[in-house]
């Protein structure tokens, strides 16, 4: 008969080896990409004026535009330097990390509302997935039509994290008021559906931002409920959620204002331009959402609502 302690040791050893393998896998993928980059020569890149009109959305990025390409050539562009490479990898690498590490990081056995964990996991993946597809295939030979479809997909990803990401927050804040909780969740889903429609059909980034604004306002009213002590939730999560929104807003403002490339057009064509900075801030924002939701999910399992 194997003793309990030996069994636990074997399980822990297996988990340890599993985590190590994940890191080795990432290392392998990264090395392969770097190796391929060293040997693959890309096509001749275009400057702003000679790139297709639908790709001329940032007049401060002067060079490094990929020519119109087939699906295979778009995928090949993962392995040579151009002005969308940073955008692809700043969301591509976190997408792979989140896909593997988030399920391992959610304490499934300790949380009592499993569907909130699943919804949260999907919410965290959606913006990066839409973004990677948009940036990778935006120069597809299908032209403007394909570009606008991909842009809608990218916007949809942001809408999904705004919608799905907020459900655990609404659920936890109103934990002790089940009827109001159900109504609030339904209202939020319905209004979010309308916001998604508005954001996807918006013709400018300012209009798009406006359709996200009311969702932020709705979330903020829940933060306010928590702050005045009327809403439920872990005492530590509100701080995380405020950081989440602060980083997202900062990213949005930097992106719209085209900082820093507007001050030195051409200098930030490949690295550190406004869109890449926004991507990094969005990843930070998702991490804060994750930490806040984790605190809340654990809080739900340990909290008993007052009986009166
Ligand atoms: Zn992007």
From TrEMBL:
Zn(2+) binds at residues 135, 275, 279. It is found in: Membrane. It comes from the Eukaryota. One of its GO terms (cellular component) is membrane. It is a multi-pass membrane protein. Its main location: membrane. One of its GO terms (molecular function) is signaling receptor activity. The keyword Transmembrane helix applies. Keywords: Membrane, Metal-binding, Transmembrane, Transmembrane helix, Zinc. The chain crosses the membrane at residues 22-40, 88-108, 114-137, 177-200, 212-229, 241-257, 277-294. It holds the Pfam family HlyIII. The keyword Metal-binding applies. Belongs to the ADIPOR family. This is Progestin and adipoQ receptor family member IVa. It comes from Monopterus albus (Swamp eel).
């Amino acid at each position: 008969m194997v003793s309990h302690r030996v069994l636990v040791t074997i399980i822990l050893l297996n988990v340890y080896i599993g985590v190590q393998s994940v890191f080795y896998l990432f290392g392998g993928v990264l090395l392969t990409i770097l190796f391929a980059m060293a040997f693959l020569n890309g096509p001749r890149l275009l400057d702003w004026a000679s790139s297709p009109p639908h790709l001329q959305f940032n007049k401060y990025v002067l060079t490094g535009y990929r020519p119109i390409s087939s699906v295979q050539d778009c995928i090949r562009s993962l392995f040579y330097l151009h002005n969308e490479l940073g955008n692809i990898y700043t969301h591509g690498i976190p997408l792979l990390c989140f896909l593997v590490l988030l399920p391992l990081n959610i304490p499934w056995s300790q949380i009592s509302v499993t569907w909130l964990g699943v919804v949260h996991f999907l919410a965290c993946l959606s913006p990066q997935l839409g973004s990677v597809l948009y940036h990778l295939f935006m120069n597809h030979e299908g032209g403007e039509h394909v570009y606008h479809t991909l842009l809608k997909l990218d916007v949809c990803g942001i809408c999904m994290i705004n919608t799905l990401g907020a459900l655990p927050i609404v659920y936890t804040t109103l934990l002790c008021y089940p009827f109001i909780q159900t109504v609030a969740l339904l209202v939020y889903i319905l209004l979010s559906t309308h916001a998604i429609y508005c954001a996807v059909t918006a013709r400018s980034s300012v209009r798009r931002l406006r359709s996200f604004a009311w969702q932020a306002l709705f979330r903020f009213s829940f933060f306010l409920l928590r702050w005045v002590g009327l809403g439920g939730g872990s005492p530590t999560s509100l701080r995380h959620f405020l950081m989440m929104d602060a980083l997202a807003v900062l990213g949005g403002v930097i992106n719209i204002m085209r900082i820093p490339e507007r001050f030195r057009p051409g200098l930030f064509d490949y690295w550190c331009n406004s869109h890449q900075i926004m991507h990094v801030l969005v990843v930070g924002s998702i991490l804060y959402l994750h930490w806040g939701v984790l605190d809340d999910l654990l809080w739900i399992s340990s909290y008993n609502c007052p009986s009166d």
